[in-house]
Design a protein that fits this description.
- By secondary structure, this protein is mainly alpha-helical.
- 68% of the residues lie in helices and 5% in strands.
- It has a two-stranded antiparallel ribbon with strand order 1-2.
């Protein structure tokens, strides 16, 4: 089931307001859906996906892991540098991929601004994204 959330767009987290408390969660979800349709009709897209975060983390992990492994392998000469770089890159890939996959989702700023503005007009306050 985790692969389903990997493609999900970030969702706004609504703070408790009078509207939310009075009309409830169902109405809030309908308001979010209405704002999403309105914002996407304007041509804006969320732009932040779990897979992109994981890929970014993996690239950063390979780069930093490889560099750290190579510097640690200097003591063993050229063979030590090669082994250290390969080991570090492999470990960096795993750590970066996992870390990037759990990075909080944040939508593109224009999309987030438009959604926040729309929801504010409906009486909601956005406290963050998930």
């Amino acid at each position: 089931m985790s692969w389903l959330t990997a493609c999900a767009a970030p969702e706004p987290v609504l703070r408790p307001t009078k509207r939310l408390l009075f009309y409830g969660k169902q109405q809030a979800q309908e308001d979010v859906a209405a704002c999403r349709r309105q914002v996407e009709q304007e041509g804006l897209r969320p732009g932040a996906y779990q897979g992109a975060n994981a890929a970014t983390g993996a690239v950063l992990g390979v780069t930093l892991g490889g560099a750290m492994g190579a510097s640690a392998g200097v003591i063993g000469g050229l063979a030590g540098v090669a082994i250290g770089a390969a080991s570090g890159a492999g470990l960096g890939l795993a750590v970066g991929l996992a870390g990037g996959a759990y990075k909080p989702l944040v939508p593109d700023p224009p999309y987030a601004d438009a959604m926040t503005h729309c929801l504010k007009e409906k009486g909601h306050e956005v406290g963050g994204w998930q």
